[in-house]
Every structure is written in C-alpha cells, then in structure tokens.
Amino acid sequence: MNPFDRIVDFAAQHHGDRAAVLEMSQNAHQAKSLKKIPDDRYLATMTRCVFNAGFNWKVIDAKWDGFELAFEGFDPNRLAFFGDEMLGQLVSDTRIVRNGQKIKATLENAKFVADTAKAHGSFGAFLSAWPADDQAGLLSYLNTNGSRLGGATGQYFLRFSGWDAWITSGDVCRALVREEVLDKPEAKSKSAMKKVQLAFNHWHAESGLPYAQISRILALSVG
Predict the structure, then answer these.
(1) Is the whole model's pTM more than 0.90, yes or no?
(2) What is the pLDDT of residues 205-222, one digit of tens each?
(3) How far apart are CA 152 and CA 186, in angstroms?
(4) Which of 82, 110, 150, 193 has its CA 20 to 30 A from that of 187?
(5) Which backbone phi and psi does 149 adopt, to 5 degrees?
(6) CB of 147 within 8 A of CB of 104?
(7) Which residues contact 3 (CB under 8 A, 6 or more apart)?
(8) What is the DSSP letter of 163?
(9) pLDDT (0 to 100) of residue 21
(10) If you ran DSSP here, which 8-state letter would residue 122 be given?
(11) HSE (CB half, 13 Å, CA atoms) of 119?
(12) Is 189 left (phi over 0), alpha (psi -120 to 50) or beta?
C-alpha cells in the first residue's frame, strides 16, 4: 500500500491540489454526539437507506414527508408494537413507495432499534460504544440483527447517521485494487471486508484522518 500522503497526491492530480482534496472530502454527515440523536431518527435514516436501495433516490426524497406521516414519525416502540396491524394499511398507502418487502423491513427494524435501545439505553449509545476500528464487525451485526441492512445499505446507514463510516463504492474498491488491498473491485466476502478494515485502520493511524474522509479521498484518487 502507498503511504496515505501519496494517495492524497493521486486525488490532487484529478481535483486541483491537496488543500482542495482535503476540503471536498470532508464528511458533512459527521455527528458531534451519536447519543443525542433520537431513536426515531435512526429508524428514519435506516428506512430511507433501505428504500433508496434499487430506487431512484430522488423519488424517495420527493415522497419523504409522506413517509414521515405514514410511519407516524418513526417511533420505534410504537411501530414495533403495532407493526403487524399497520402492515396491511401501509402497503396500500399512496404517500409512500408501496414495496411490501421494504415496508415489512421497516417494521422489523423498528423492533431492532427498540430492542437495542432497551439494552443499551438508546440506539445512539449502542453505535457510540462500537469501536471505530471495527466497522466490518458492526456491518455484520446490522446485517444479522436488522432487516435488509446488508451490503451498501448498512454502510450508507452508518454514514448518513453520523457514524464515521467508510463505504466500499465502486471508486473506493478500484482504489483498493490499485493499493493491492483487494484482488478485484468489490468487497462482498468476509475476508475482503477484513482486508478493507485493516487497510483503513492502517491509513487512519498513519494520517489521523477520519475513516469517512479517507474513504472519500480514495474515491477521488481514481478520477
């Protein structure tokens, strides 16, 4: 692997200079305190990411006010308790995208968020306590215990929730192939995710930059 300064230089070749790269790679979603974010906002972000997968994001954005109304503000305890009763009415609710599997996933994730909050004090407290150098483990946990939170969906959920998350986008994976971290431009297996995590941990320790910023710089370094 190249030293991370060299990777910043690669990005600067495409995007002006190092200062520009460091500025444009800032993570606008970074949260000052994950614990202060209400549980309903975590479920809302979870739902948005689940519905975004395979859909045009602009469609979900345009209907989002309807989602907030239909899912009653994403109160996880309420949705977990009344989920079975609400499923029938939600699949015919024109205020949202009427995808039955994703609606069901939202109600299942309400129980996941509610149960996690009960065990840890809040969902934000759970996320805050998870080690920053083990995102791969956290993604595996979300995939196992949540609904439809595997792959890129879980990564975007963490990033948009304010957790300092890397994302294995196409450009990031191409950069990781260049750096000989991956053999091919994808990270789907557990072994590949472990390699990605080790590389990010190395660059984080070396550069002192947040994981999300390292991820964005890697993407910028390929063009």
Answers:
(1) yes
(2) 999 999 999 999 999 999
(3) 11
(4) 110
(5) -110, 20
(6) yes
(7) 206
(8) -
(9) 97
(10) S
(11) 9
(12) beta
Mean pLDDT of 57-66: 95
Quick check: 55 pLDDT over 90?
no
Distances in Å between the Cα of 155 and the Cα atoms of 2, 42, 140, 182, 215 are 25, 13, 11, 18, 12
Burial category of 38 from C-beta neighbours within 10 Å (exposed 0-12, middle 13-18, buried 19 and up): middle
Among the listed residues 148, 121, 136, the one whose alpha carbon sits nearest the alpha carbon of residue 187: 136
Report pLDDT digits (tens) over 139-158.
999 999 999 999 999 999 99
Give dist(CA 198, CA 41) in Å, integer.
30
Residue with tokens 């890697």: 218
- Distance, CA of 12 to CA of 154 (rounded, Å): 29
**Cα 73 to Cα 122: distance, rounded to the nearest angstrom:** 17
